[in-house]
Design goal:
Shape: globular
Protein name: Transcriptional regulator MntR
Mean pLDDT: 95
Number of helices: 8
Number of strands: 9
Subcellular location: Cytoplasm
Domain HTH dtxR-type: 1-64
Distance between the termini: 45 Å
Oligomer: single chain
Subunit structure: Homodimer.
Strand order of the largest sheet: 4-9-5-6-7-8
Strand content: 15-25%
Structural class: alpha+beta
Organism: Chryseobacterium salviniae
Amino acid sequence: MKTTLTEENYLKALFHLVDSENKVTINELSKFLSVKMPSVNNMMKKFAEKNWVIYETYKPLIVTEKGRREAALVVRKHRLTEMFLVKKMNFGWENVHEIAEQLEHVHSTVFFDKMDEILDHPKFDPHGEPIPDKDGNIIAQDLRKLSSCDVGETVTFTSVTLSDDSFLNYLTERNLLLDKKIKILKIESFDKSFTVEVDGKQEILSRKATDKILVKK
């Protein structure tokens, strides 16, 4: 039986919220989806019947391997679509999320497999997030927040934790794009803002921004 749009939105939320022990609370889901707790409880009972989660009253949900795979496959559709829009249709990385939100609910596996083939099987989406494969497997990345780095370090901008339009426009205006080298020149003791150098030009980044920029050495 095909998943509904609502089920897919819940699955995607589980994917983003689950911790290292495959656990997530009803309250976390409720806040993330802006859905009332009783509705979340009812949906998670249905998910338990499908063996996507282990549900016990007043305890965190445990996402099963089957549930993790189902969630990853929804995310796969979303991230492949974003990559297609950027690489083949010349959309900016700040303009693709909303369109992908709509197309991710297409049920045709062949459609997304063809998209994957046309793109030559990309491993990452335009925002640096790994794209799950057809079996729901995902590449593990050893990344850290820019805000955790020290003065004098030079790191590579690899991914963002937030892909909303305003933040991506903020980065684009400062020429802060994926794979750019970022040299940390100064960290303000008062507000933890960073002065960085990118392509020979200095920029000041707020703590809010540096928390959402993921980098590697």
